[in-house]
Amino acid sequence: MKVKTAALLWDESFLWGLMAYKALKANGLPFKLIRSEDIKSGELKNYSLLFVPGGWASNKLKALGDKGIAEIKRFVNNGGNYLGFCGGAGLATTDGIGLLPIKRIPTKDRVPSFSGRIHLNVKRHPMWKIAECEMRNADLNPKSEIVFHAWWPSQFSIGDRGIKILASYGEAMPDAFSSDLNVGDVETGCGWKELEKIYGINLDPRRLTNEPAVVEGSYGKGKVILSLIHFDTPDDKNGAEVLRNLWKYLVENADAPSYPPLKLRGGRGSYEIGNRKSEIVELMSDLKSAVDDLISLGIRSFLWFRRNPMLLQWRRGVRGLEYCTLYVMIKELSAISCQPSAIRDKGKLDEIKTLLLPFIKKAKKLLIMERLAMQNSHITYERCDDPEIRKLREKLFGNSKSHGGLFKELINKVDDLLYLLLSDHERR
Questions:
Q1: Which helix (H) or strand (E) segment is 328 a member of?
Q2: pTM over 0.90, yes/no
């Protein structure tokens, strides 16, 4: 009998999919990458867990379509398990697939731009069996508190008593942010009330206190765990332990060895790539230099800084997440570009370059214009009085907060090639 493992849904996750992929690899957890087309063709029967990382839930729904949605519901109803982080959690709510009777609170009523470390009040569950939590729980109190990471989460509205709240939010750490405001600085300064009037959104992280952060329910015979916390955050030891516990709890073959971390033995000359070697190296150097220049421009223009190896903190008024996503994914392509499949798919790299270089040129222009506009008026990523800025924003990103415009066309091609390269590695 074939042993079942976990499936990681790659589609419409981008930065968050890569973050999840790296976290599972780093912890040696068994999984396979799949796409919506695999789900539509019935591949979920080969797995015991479907893990859906972050990303826009609405875009994931479109990729899955009615057939993919029906396959996921059939899978969980028949005893398969579902794990969703952030956007992957939103996908399972009544606003999405409807695995659990949970709604997402409207943006205007929640704290929409919180990011960083925050305490969780956790209830006893196998996923919380981690050293720090158990030390604080030595008195056998059924609740304990521990620090994890949230990255611009939604908020749950739960009206069903059958839903178990496994963790709720506690106090935000001083190094967290709400929009582009440092929590510790604000709380020792003017406070949140006046800033909320200026920003026109809820900012005070205390509004999150006791709100559900991790929940569990069932759909048919299957377990469903939805988390607004990113246990896949880079360099998060607490999160890594929770991931391992979740695999033990949800995955039939959790102790099976995973594929080894992706490494290039001996550098770029490890693979025989014939006459195309210099072409690939030069091409990837151009792509990498372009995104490096873009990020450097943002840093020296005081538009963003690094939060961790995969995430930036940006000022309100620019689309930092898109630039961060592009940077991280191009860097990953560069790291694995000597695989044999990269040589076979050189045409895809050429297509990416054709889109990337003009995009970077326009993006640099936009960032400088936005930087100057910040000196004269109050702007957000979606609101600016300057018609030239609005026109350029629409061309690059479309009119919605979710990915659109030239960025979406570009990042889709990067995403497709990255999936092929990572999958190629797993097959070897």
A1: helix 320-335
A2: yes
